[in-house]
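During the no-cost extension, the postdoctoral fellow (Dr. R.K.) reprocessed legacy sequence entries with the updated structure-token encoder. One reprocessed record is reproduced below for audit purposes.
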Amino acid sequence: MKIMEKPLELHCIALGQMQTNCYIVINRSTKEAVVFDPGDQGEKIMETLKKEGVRLTAVCLTHAHFDHIMGLPYLMEVNDKLPVYLHEDEQDVLLDPQLNLSTMVGLTISLKANRIVKDGEEIELLGEKVTCIHVPGHTKGGVCYYFSAYGWLISGDTLFQRSIGRTDFPTGDLNALLLAIRSKLFVLPPETRVFSGHTPPTTIGEEIRSNPFLL
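Re-encoded structure tokens follow.
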């Protein structure tokens, strides 16, 4: 999938055993890119960037479960001092292999982010303002990235097409997730396009109307 709205383009590639949606947002004018949730196959991500003729300038994590971070060690290794964005409440999840579930698949992933964000904080990526929306529930530090000028919401495993993220893993909380989606995401413009970690794109309006978990 590729969505083009000058000067930014949004690309999606499915990575790893969980086929996690990794989003690559590219600014063609500056030839720079930001990767959201490098689920696996860091080499494939870098090959994609090379093919597109762009340079990786940052990684943004919606949360720290293994299937969203397995490609990160490689990206950090080949990109010195790579900015890695993560919500402040998710730091110990990224650090702890039990919390990030990497031990569940026979791995030991323990990493640190170097750009810690807070709820409502506005960061600049690729020359555009992006709002960090803390939506706890799937994990305690889950965060969605909202490109208001483009109407894009990169939601990770918070909100899916007609579904929501699981809450039975460590730090999950169903009531917190439902409350946060209703109070923080469903107030966005209904035409906002939602790009999730595991389902096709949807919109805020469509989920308000038809998501069975939130009716």
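Residues 2-210 form a domain with the Metallo-beta-lactamase; Chain A fold (CATH 3.60.15.10). The chain has a mean pLDDT of 96. The remaining legacy entries will be reprocessed before the final report is submitted.
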